[in-house]
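ESCALATION

Customer reports they have been waiting on this structure for their group meeting. Please prioritize. Original submission:
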Amino acid sequence: MDLLGLHHVAIICGDYARSRAFYTETLGLPVIAETYRASRDSWKLDLALPDGARLELFSFPGAPERPSRPEAQGLRHLAFAVADVEAASAALLAKGVAVEPIRTDSLTDRRFTFFADPDGLPLELYEADQPAG
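Update from on-call: job pushed to the front of the queue and completed.
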């Protein structure tokens, strides 16, 4: 099997309108498509990431909350690569998003920080090399 990369990450939100605003306005992700499925009473929002991967937001009535702290088995967090973690952190803070203090990974010597989406899903900003070009 030859995996080509990450295609998408799917997130079920507790409040679709609030999560839609967070991911499109606060994080600035462009909408690819938005679909309402009447048979499921569910929205699906496809969002584009600059590297070609996607985020899919879903609304499902009555979906249970996912435990986040203490950390549970399964998805730990979703990390976004940024060129400057300090600038990205400041941009989130300016929009009223709580951001943890910037730290340095002792293994990679890269700077990173965490914040959360409206449902408490841990999100990371990870300072990565910019692509050559």
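Sent to customer with the following note: Strands lie at 8-13, 31-37, 42-48, 54-59, 78-82, 103-104, 111-116, 122-127.
Escalation resolved.
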